[in-house]
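Anyone have tokens for Non-homologous end joining protein Ku? Sequence:
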Amino acid sequence: MPRSMWKGAISFGLVHIPVDMYTAVDNKGLDLTMLDRRDFSPVGFKRYNKGNGKEVSWDDIVKGYEYSSGEYVVLSDEDLRRANPEATQTIDILAFVDAEDVSLLYFEQPYYLAPGKGGDKVYALLRETLRKAGKIGIARVVIRVKQHLAALVCVGDVIVMNTLRYADEIRDAGDLKIPTADDKKAAITDKELKMAMALVQGMAEDWDPEQYHDTYREDVMALIEKKVKAHQTKTITMPEASETKRETGKVIDLVSLLQASLGKKPSKATADDDDDDDDDEPPPPKKRKPAAEEDDEEETPPPRARKTAARGTDRVAASGAAPKRAGTRAAAKPAAKKAAAKSTGAPSTAPARRRKAA
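Reply: yep, here.
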């Protein structure tokens, strides 16, 4: 069972709910040790007396507040508690508000609140009240030597206390160069907005925190294992001269980047939606005729071929050779008729010849 970092009570009107506070976050950053590059020995720090330069142990250390240059007021843990005993032991609920009214910019650090001894029923009462009302409780609490604003949120069956930043701790963004909605330099076209919306819809999915993890930490750990296996634990890698920084200039063609993100070429439907960019686009292709009409055109001889034949006949007539060819064609017609008659009559004469031979 984890060790609680704070014990006290939630003040809810005249109701006091005993609770124990536990940290809800386990930071998993890389634990890197500072080394002396000359012999790779660990570098340590000593707590020393700035007056005589001698090292000071933890048992001899107390805390103090410098009220003037070089003058301090000593404050022990008991002094800090006596300054306001109720504030240091109570989570005092001040109001109940809608969760969506509190910007995420104010949320700072989450803590689990578990019921203390004999506080199960009143703990469950506050939890179900928050859940049914759809509200979060805004409270004050002192942790160590600082009073925090906090939000009590119902997360499943647990009441989570999330410390909040005060309004004067939030820096004003007015000094930043943020484009406004009517800024002409940052004007967004309907096409760009439509494509961006399509990209968002394509990437939309249900929230599953388990699928996300620190991939950079895994990459660094893989690099460490690689250097250990290669016996390069004492090798200091320096940047190469050819390496260049990633360009972070202005985006030249936002539409092409959106199209590449969508993983497809620009469609005709998307192009037709932007009437303002029609002047820059080529004219639409001609419609193709139906297959039936194409077949009719192929069967009909082209008019150019007929004109060529006519011209050839005129040229022959002009040279005087037309009568001979006309007579030859006229004589050829009866011969062709006789040949056709013979070919059609041949079957009828064959039986008679066979009878004579018999």
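The longest strand covers residues 146-155.
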